[in-house]
Amino acid sequence: MTSTNTTDQSAPQPDRRPSPWDAPAPTGGHDALGGAVEGVEGDRSGSVVSDRAVVSAPDAAAATPAALLPAAADHYALFQDVAGEDLQAWADARSLADEVLPRINDWWDRGEYPIELIARLGELDLLTDGLDVPGHRTLSPLATGLVNMELSRIDGSVGTMVGVQGGLALRSIMLLGSEEQKQRWAEPLARGTEHAAFALTEPDHGSDSVSLETVARRDGDGWVLSGQKRWIGNGAGCHLTVVWARVEDESQPALHGQVSGFLVDQSLPGYDAEVIRGKVALRAIHQAHITLDEVRIPLAQRLPGARSFKDTSVVLFATRAGVAWGALGHALACYEAALEHAQKRIQFGRPLAKAQHVQVRLADMLQTLTSMQLHCRRLAELEAAGTIRPEQASLAKVHNTRAAREIASNARDLLGGSGILLENRVVRHRSDIEALHTYEGTDTMQSLIVGRSITGVSAFA
């Protein structure tokens, strides 16, 4: 997907606070689909950003529940009691709006990955995803959810950066790693000074990742990894990949044939990663197709706590609720855009909001949005109490990604032609929701987990 810079650079731009991204983007500073952008001069943000947007940007300085989530989007006042550290984390996530929104559409349009944002997220201490990392605040389940929600409300690629770096890679190390591995990786990953991937999915094993074919063969004082991985966020051009592979080591009968995790430096010989091109969702973060060709790592690079796929599932289960929160963020952005447009857009001599059918549609969207909020708030309560079950997170994931698709489609339609322009944000969220609907377990697989729970019978095979 390409675009041509036709925006009048002398046209007035919306007032906003200065941000670290006001400087011209370096020609080599971003990764683009298909490689680094070359031969592009100056600030490229004008290719998409314009002063004709029909929806306004959120207030990045908002610091109270009422400012962060007005009553029109929180009908049951489910989040008006958020306070203390939870509120601070929520406000910290919102503060990124001024830095990201003026340029995200250009990055998204060009398929560029502003990987330096990971360090900015680290500066705000938003990468730990509820993990207990020494020297960093430990977010409550509610705060973790609100951060996921707010970042996705800004942009899905930014939310996914936290999901990959903190939710999957850092969580694998903190839950299953040795003390030495935690000492090496916890701080740089939490700060965002080094970047990591979580490589589970394979070309032939998505929903049935338990059947993965990548192999880690014991060879003397090391492991030799061979296989392929696909759809791996941060899998190319970063530092570390947590690779999940089937162990071949007959000297350890309990481990032989089981799935375990391995810490693989992306610069090692035999590690080849190609950015997947042609995506129409989450275009401001890269996913890679990885080929592991006899990649040798030391024995100490295996995660000692990962002794079967059940251990892998612990990591996946912990992040599933985050997808429900992320879907809520996307839905909020779309609903708020539709509401504002309906109130401002004049047709046939009156605002769209004065039409009965428009009010009914907005009310329907609010009903759906409120149900999503109820799922998320309850999940946070269950997690805080230590009683959450995997099938509960699965139900919320299925419900909220379905609901987000519905709200986004309604919002796109209510905005008319403006709804297909990136500058109005809805179409970007609508596209990104498609990725959420699939990753961390497809709609069908999560529904089958719920079905197994309520019937007592597995229908997976």
Throw out a few tags for this protein.
globular; alpha+beta; three-stranded antiparallel sheet; Butyryl-CoA Dehydrogenase, subunit A, domain 2; 14% strand; 12 strands; 3 domains; 461 residues; Butyryl-CoA Dehydrogenase, subunit A, domain 3
Please explain how this structure is put together.
The chain has about 450 residues and is of the alpha+beta class. It folds into three domains: about 45-190, Acyl-CoA dehydrogenase/oxidase, N-terminal domain (Butyryl-Coa Dehydrogenase, subunit A, domain 1, Orthogonal Bundle); about 195-305, Butyryl-CoA Dehydrogenase, subunit A, domain 2; about 310-455, Butyryl-CoA Dehydrogenase, subunit A, domain 3 (Up-down Bundle), CATH 1.20.140. It is about 45% helix and about 15% strand. It has helices spanning about 65-70, 85-95, 95-110, 115-125, 140-155, 155-175, 180-190, 310-345, 355-385, 390-415, 425-440, 445-455, and strands at about 30, 35, 110-115, 195-200, 215-220, 220-235, 240-250, 260-265, 270-275, 285-300, 345, 350. The strands form three sheets. Strands 4, 5, 6, 7, 8, 9 and 10 form a seven-stranded mixed beta sheet that branches. A three-stranded antiparallel beta sheet has the order 2-1-3. It has a two-stranded antiparallel ribbon with strand order 11-12. Helix 5 packs across helix 8 (about 310-345) and helix 10 packs across helix 12. The two termini are about 40 Å apart. Residues about 1-30 and about 30-45 have low confidence and may be disordered.
